[in-house]
Amino acid sequence: MNAHLQPSGSAYFLDSVKPLVETHTLAVIVDNEPGVLARVIGLFSGRGYNIESLTVSETQHEKHVSRITIVTSGTPVVIEQIKNQLGRMVPVHSVADLTVQGNALTRELAMVKVSGTGEKRVEALRLADAFRARVIDAGTQSFIFEITGKTDKVEQFISLMVPLGLVEVARTGVAGITRGAEGMKV
């Protein structure tokens, strides 16, 4: 049957509709004890969810509490499942979807090693200045730059360094926090 003869409400076109995949940044407050991070990661791997970025650190020493920041992607239904499943875990105190809250600041740090001489070296320094990247180590054959900012800024800087002699990249992953006087509940 020709496409122009098929009725517009045909079920044959349902397969071509792709579900909307969104990227979300989740902040999770957990007890700082052995095995908690493994349990959180196990929730993701056991259900086939992807973690695009993961950072974790103790944030309140006296309360033995850590903050895990996870960047993940999925359909809206999958994102809701992830938040609900995280919220039901015993060592989890609270889960916040920084993407939905909409007033969050997110940043990432990267150290970028670039090797080169001559014009490539000059261009790498010029671009670093434009991106506000700092030189944290310099030799006659290479530089190590430190850059902080939103993930897309870091990725753009890294991609511009590829033709200039990119050697190695170390990234922290995303850290995020909401604006305003209120904080996450422990």
TrEMBL record:
Top-level class of the enzyme under EC nomenclature: transferase
One Pfam family in the UniProt entry: ALS_ss_C
Residues of the ACT domain: 25-100
A GO CC annotation given for this chain: cytosol
Gene3D superfamilies the UniProt entry points to: 3.30.70.260, ACT-like. Chain A, domain 2
Enzyme Commission numbers on file: 2.2.1.6
Keyword vocabulary terms for this entry: Amino-acid biosynthesis, Branched-chain amino acid biosynthesis, Transferase
Molecular function GO terms recorded: acetolactate synthase activity; acetolactate synthase regulator activity
Record bears the keyword Amino-acid biosynthesis: yes
Entries under PROSITE patterns matching the protein: ACT
Keyword Methyltransferase (UniProt): no
Domain of life per record: Bacteria
Catalytic reaction equation(s): 2 pyruvate + H(+) = (2S)-2-acetolactate + CO2
GO biological process, one term: L-valine biosynthetic process
Pathway: Amino-acid biosynthesis; L-valine biosynthesis; L-valine from pyruvate: step 1/4; Amino-acid biosynthesis; L-isoleucine biosynthesis; L-isoleucine from 2-oxobutanoate: step 1/4
Subunit and interaction comment: Dimer of large and small chains.
Function field: Catalyzes the conversion of 2 pyruvate molecules into acetolactate in the first common step of the biosynthetic pathway of the branched-amino acids such as leucine, isoleucine, and valine.
PANTHER family on file: ACETOLACTATE SYNTHASE SMALL SUBUNIT, ACETOLACTATE SYNTHASE SMALL SUBUNIT 1, CHLOROPLASTIC
Recorded family membership: Belongs to the acetolactate synthase small subunit family.
Name of this protein: Acetolactate synthase small subunit
Protein's organism: Aestuariivirga litoralis
